[in-house]
Amino acid sequence: MDLLVVGAGEIGRWVADTVSAEAAPVDASVAFADRDPDVAADAAAGRDARTADADGDSVHDAVCLAVPMSAVPAAVEAYAPRAAQAIVDVSGEMTAALAAMREHASDLERASYHPLFAPPRVPGNVAVVVDEGGPAVEGLTAAIETGGNDVFETTAAEHDEAMETVQAGAHAAVLAWRLAAEPVREEFHTPVSAALDEVADTVTEGSPAVYAEIQRAFDGAEDVADAAAEIAGADDEAFADLYERARGDGEGRDRLE
User: What's the pTM value of the predicted model, to 2 decimals?
Assistant: First the structure.
């Protein structure tokens, strides 16, 4: 498989490493395209890969879009003519991505993957919606699974709704805690605060642009803010009710009205 990876950042490089790994079940050659040619050249230089002109017309068996979520619809339109067999994305928002693929790549295999981890923490869970299957998509999925990842199927609606909780809401809660926290001596940390501090370190080691994209793409932060405000203003009885709902089995963790 000749694969064009559009976007030579961390996720694009992870895709290239995954499909070209020695144990991967596909015989893949990889080309990187990026708006910054130096970034594409850097990605290719450390791998058995080559570069392709971001504005060129080279045609490849498959195209994988590893670009910011907001850029996916336009990227689908631009790069669908360069895919002979399949077009997929790994950007993290599925509804708009798949709609663009149906519009501009109706004759191709189509799938949206979301690695639910940062590349330094591979392997992990990878959500996928296969909109139009075939041998190219099957090969990509098999390569991801061979890399030790757990690929699970979902729908675009289920995925994007889940991201409101596991990304937008979770990130907002962690960042808000870090911003509100005062420095304390290490000895004062409890198991809860120490764990939160570690999670906050993880969240803040990435790119702010990526996290801003997540907040723009998915609701969730406002629900966290509303819940925090209700906790802060609760009397003993109301707090006890909130506490019981929070430690419920899921049914009790309904969103605050």
Answer: 0.91
| Nearest partner of 8 among 50, 46, 40, judged by Cα | 40
β-strand pairing of 125-132 with 150-153: parallel
Per-residue model confidence (pLDDT) at position 23: 87
Residues 6+ apart with CB under 8 A from 142: 24, 25, 26
Please say whether the beta carbons of 46 and 20 come within 8 A.
no
Architecture of domain 2-154: 3-Layer(aba) Sandwich (3.40)
Please report, as a single letter, which amino acid is at residue 107. Answer: D
| Domains in the chain: boundaries | 2-154, 158-246
- Rounded to the nearest 10 degrees, what angle do helices 236-246 and 221-233 cross at? 140
Other Cβ atoms within 10 Å of 230 Cβ, number? 14
SS (H, E, C) 74-139: HHHHHHHHHEEEEEEECCCCCHHHHHHHHHHCCCCEEEEEEECCCHHHCCCEEEEEEEECCHHHHH
The CA distance from 170 to 163, in Å, is 9
**Residue 203 · residue 171 · CB < 8 Å:** yes
User: Is 48 in contact with 19 (CB distance < 8 Å)?
Assistant: no
Model pLDDT for residues 114-123, shown as the tens digit of each residue: 999 988 889 9
Reported as a single tens digit per residue, the pLDDT across 203-256 is: 999 889 999 999 999 999 999 999 999 999 999 999 999 999 998 855 545 544
List, in sequence order, every residue forming a beta bridge with 87; answer none if it has no partner. Answer: 63, 110
